[in-house]
Amino acid sequence: MSAAPLWTLHAMAEAMRASIQGALPEAVTGLSIDSRTIAPGEAYFAIKGDVHDGHDFVDAALKAGAALAVVEAPQREKFASDAPLLIVDDVLAGLVELARAARARLSAQVIAVTGSVGKTSTKEALRRVLGAQGETHASAASFNNHWGVPLSLARCPATARFAIFEIGMNHAGEIEPLVKMVRPHAAIITTIEPVHLEFFAGIEAIADAKAEIFAGIEPGGAVVLNRDNSQFDRLTERAKNLGISRIVSFGSDKKSDARLLDISLHATCSAVHANILGNDVTYKLGMPGRHMAMNSLAVLAAASLVGADLARAALSLSQIESTAGRGARRALEVANGEATLIDESYNANPASMAAALNVLGQAAVGPRGRRIAILGDMLELGPTAPALHRGLIDAIRSNHIDLVYCCGPLMRNLWDALSTGKRGGYAESAAALEAQAVAAIRAGDAIMIKGSLGSKMKTIVNALEKRFPGGTALDEAAV
Q: Are 302 and 335 contained in the same domain?
């Protein structure tokens, strides 16, 4: 069976005010900006990125089965006269216009998610929860920037019942144009933490930048805010000043509308008792960590606000799981047994690093096993970076981490603060630390790897998985 059309050619061309060249199909089944992964029948958008110009890969996309390519007028002469093209002045601007057309035709309930930590996991939990109750579209991966949001929106089928979009930023002014494109009925801010401090004067400025999400809320819409966070009052005031009257809070605070009543933390899951908008619910959460449990409150609150069944939504939370780079677990086959790898390598900031260390502290270990943290630099923290790296010592001590490996010039600050007994090894880069980390692992260990994307901690994850092949890790107590 062929895939259902996503866009007719006429609708695409009209939305983007594009001219037509070559023999084009009546419709396309999807949209892509990557010639390496494009599927037959999709439209290829030749976006100009920071490193590559998508126009250089148009021929490859068409050979891979792309139904057509969207290119800029000044570059049309690069291609054969019969190549199937939609020609626009600017490809990214054309994609934005197509995204606006997608939103205009959409009857779905729309949710936007932002926050300093937990955007992607919250978006994925919403995808799972709402997907069990109706056709649901959500941003792929972390497509949350100036090209990722319009691409995700333009990919949304007109038939969707729910649509979820992740919106990120590292500078002020980036969220507002994106949320005005998405126009959500409900928006979640997971938390405000000291991230991207290189670009902001302080945490209040970060809160103000995240509060830009209020500018796109549909009339009568709601915002879901973390009442336990220090910036709750500031965010609440901003929302009210923009005329948003439905402000739903979540957290452990007694005044929270979605309130955590009790929690039991396990190595790979949590048992949660909460009150969500006046309804008591008890559920199993398929991901470990108190921070995940707190965000699950926001998920259930938002799901309720857009008309989903709360009981079914809570039941669905047992089925969510961590993904690669964001807490996924793998059993490593080592001499005389197995070790557990916790892959947190996608990104890091002080809040997410502390949360990951808490999860490692809950991880099960064998009789001679150790809890080992392999940590890379946290980037974009500005002049506070040395102190914030050194400050991780508190989370290492409170979670009884046995051994710490550090890499990068900023992590040297933590390394110097560690006691001799907790020092595993130090290197200037992930590549230089790789051999030490691989040599250290033994049966019963639980190893957590984390650092900012630019720290390239995935190289150590890959090295361990190559050296010690295994499978998905299971927690015997949870099973």
A: no
Cα separation, 342 vs 251, in Å, equals 26
Q: What is the pLDDT of residue 4?
A: 85
Q: Are residues 275 and 130 in the same domain?
A: yes
The predicted structure's pLDDT at residue 472 = 60
* Residues found in the chain: 479
Tell me whether residue 2 is in a domain: no
> Given its phi and psi angles, is residue 197 left (phi above 0), alpha (psi -120 to 50 degrees) or beta?
alpha
| φ, ψ dihedrals at 98, nearest 5° | -65, -35
The answer on 136 and 61 residing in a single domain is: no
Neighbours of 231 (CB within 10 A): 22
CB neighbour list of residue 114: distance below 8 Å, 6 or more residues apart: 144, 166, 167, 168, 169, 175, 187, 188, 189, 190, 210, 213
Q: Is 130:182 a contact under the CB 8 Å cutoff? A: no
Q: Which residue has the tokens 């807490």?
A: 327
pLDDT at site 171: 93
Q: Is the pTM of this model over 0.85?
A: yes
Instruction: Evaluate whether 91 touches 31 at the Cβ level (below 8 Å).
Output: no
CB-count exposure of residue 252 (10 Å: 0-12, 13-18, 19+): middle
Q: How many CB atoms lie within 10 A of CB 347?
A: 22
Q: What per-residue confidence (pLDDT) applies to 471?
A: 67
pLDDT, one tens digit per residue, over 455-473 is 999 999 999 999 998 766 5
Output the six-digit token pair for 470.
């295994």
* Shared-domain flag, residues 166 and 294: yes
- Domain of residue 46 covers 7-90
- Each residue's pLDDT tens digit, 214-255: 999 999 999 999 999 999 999 999 999 999 999 999 999 999
Which of 64, 90, 116 marks a domain boundary? 90
Last residue of a domain, one of 319, 339, 361: 319
